[in-house]
Amino acid sequence: MKTINIDGKKYISEEDVNIQLKKKDLKPSKKQIVILNRGWVIVGDYSEKGDECTLSDASVIRTWGTTKGLGELAENGPLTATKLDSCPNVHFHKMTMVARMDVNEQKWS
To answer: CA-CA distance, 79 to 76, in Å (whole number)?
Structure first.
């Protein structure tokens, strides 16, 4: 597996991540929190076709409302202080995505 280090952080290719997921038989959740360029954080049902990604049934996460970061929101679902702004489908190029995070889908239903 090839890696690259940028500012002390280790990155691997999406292809290598997918290979590792297949080996472990881990499947990403349909609903994802996606972090985009310029600070946009959006949750929705993730899909991709070529280089275009789509979040349907989407909401912009305006305020996390957490004490333990975005991972807390992914695991526990929206909290009392979380502010979600519902929006239409969001389409974006794959290269504008900084990261995406699986969520506990039962907590986000």
So the answer is: 7
For residue 76, which of 102, 104, 99, 100 has the smallest C-alpha distance?
104
67-90 pLDDT, tens digit per residue, is: 999 999 999 999 999 999 999 999
pLDDT for 102 beyond 80: yes
The CATH number of domain 28-102 is 1.10.10.60: no
Per-residue DSSP letters for 47-75? EEETTEEEEEEEEEEEE---SS-HHHHHH
CA distance 49 to 107: 27
Domain residue ranges in the chain = 28-102
The pLDDT tens digits for 85-98 are 999 999 999 999 99
Distances (CA, A) of 61 to 18, 81, 83, 96: 26, 11, 6, 17
